[in-house]
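Long-time lurker, finally posting.

We've been working with DNA modification methylase (Arthrobacter pityocampae) and I want a structural starting point before designing mutants. I don't trust myself to interpret raw outputs, so I'm hoping someone here can both generate the structure tokens and explain anything notable. Sequence follows.
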Amino acid sequence: MRQSVAAGAVLVMLGVSGCSFTSEQSTTTEYAPSDGIVKDLGPVLLRNVLIVGNQGESEGRLVGTVFNTTDQPVDLSIRAGGAETIITVEGDGEFRFEEEAGDDTTVGGLMTTPPGSLVDVDFGVDGEDATFEVPVLDGTLEEYREFVPGGFTPRPVEPEVNEEAAEGE
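Top reply, 14 upvotes:
Generated this for you. Predicted structure of DNA modification methylase:
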């Protein structure tokens, strides 16, 4: 009898204790802890890839890193906003957009894309093509300010009116 009561108590405790035999553990869910995309395309790994630009400007700059997992160089084509660029990533190498200068790091035709939006960007390598939604950011975050084409000018902050200032008018 005691064993039956103990077994019943254990079953009741398991049922009401929030035991998660059937629930997915949130700590096992993989996600990209970055501002940009994390995608794989054939032998190429795209890590923290995003576009930095100013609203109203026609160009944005790519930021992030592309890794080549093969021992041979690969050409990665990138198309967005009507513009295309091709970069070469050396075998077992990486290409960091932040460290490169020139047309292969800029994306044209983004004039109507405000920061905070996602832009469809076509990537192609070794006959494989994919379209990924890439986030567009501006220089609000300090770590991206140096990459904004033409420089970043913060919006003017409206001064806060306090009660003392209002009374003096």
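Before you design anything, note these points.
Helices lie at 2-16, 163-167.
Residues 63 and 93 are 17 Å apart (CA to CA).
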